[in-house]
């Protein structure tokens, strides 16, 4: 008989349960950074829930109050879904995880739940599952980003900044902006650094320290990772060394 249960990660069970992403490499720098980041964020209201099928991970959701979110969106009293991923499809696990987040928002008297999607990358959740669960798209930003919301009251809508082009002008040198929210950021950074070495240019890494800085300089709504060179966005997700090399070579 199939066994299904939901496990909420907390500081006391994090080491034993482990987070979902990069779980096959628990000793990697990215995974350790993610675990350290989670311990701090649990104290700020972040929730990380795994769905387990027969004691094996089948998917997870991560969400947090907007005041501590890694996504570049403005609003008051919302929860923001960072990640939603299921590896066993067709059983409704994604919808169940979304509904758990909505229920939590109701318990906390939140204005609603926000998620940012993008059809051009698997680094953001799929838009379709949120539309199915009665989220509504209310805004778009450059590079394919979409702002969806499930409102629980009459509060003001969340919104994107409107200065994306101006943000790119801050960076002429090759710059990698990142936070430890995603464990794959470490690999993504290494690939760009390797490509930069091949091209013969120097890269600067900015480890974003807080939400104020994130809202001010992140080149995209995704927030946790961005690569800019000569005032152009190179990427907001992981590239292979070869792909990064091609993009940089074109601008040298």
UniProtKB/TrEMBL annotation:
SUPFAM superfamilies: Acyl-CoA N-acyltransferases (Nat). Residues 4-165 form the N-acetyltransferase domain. It comes from the Bacteria. This is Acetyltransferase. Pfam families: Acetyltransf_1 (PF00583). GO terms for molecular function: acyltransferase activity, transferring groups other than amino-acyl groups. InterPro entries: Acyl_CoA_acyltransferase, GNAT_dom. PROSITE patterns: GNAT. It comes from Ornithinibacillus bavariensis.
């Amino acid at each position: 008989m199939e066994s299904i249960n939901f496990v909420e990660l907390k500081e006391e069970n994090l080491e034993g349960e482990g987070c979902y992403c990069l779980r096959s490499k628990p000793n990697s720098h990215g995974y350790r950074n993610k675990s350290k980041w989670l311990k701090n964020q649990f104290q700020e209201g972040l929730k990380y829930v795994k769905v387990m099928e027969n004691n094996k991970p089948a998917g997870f959701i991560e969400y947090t109050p907007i005041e501590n979110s890694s996504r570049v969106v403005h609003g008051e009293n919302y929860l923001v879904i960072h990640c939603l991923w299921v590896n066993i499809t067709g059983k409704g696990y994604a919808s169940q995880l979304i509904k758990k987040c909505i229920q939590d928002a109701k318990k906390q008297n939140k204005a609603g739940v926000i998620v940012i999607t993008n059809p051009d990358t698997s680094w953001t959740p799929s838009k379709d599952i949120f539309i199915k669960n009665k989220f509504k798209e209310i805004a778009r930003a450059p590079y394919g980003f979409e702002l969806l919301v499930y409102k629980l009251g009459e509060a003001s809508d969340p919104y994107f900044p409107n200065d994306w082009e101006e943000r790119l002008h801050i960076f002429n040198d090759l710059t990698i902006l990142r936070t430890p929210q995603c464990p794959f950021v470490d690999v993504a950074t290494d690939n760009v650094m390797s490509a930069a070495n091949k091209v013969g240019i120097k890269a600067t890494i900015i480890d974003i320290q807080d939400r104020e800085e994130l809202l001010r300089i992140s080149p995209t709504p995704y927030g946790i990772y961005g690569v800019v060179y000569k005032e152009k966005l190179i990427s907001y997700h992981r590239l292979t060394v070869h792909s990064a090399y091609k993009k940089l070579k074109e601008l040298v």
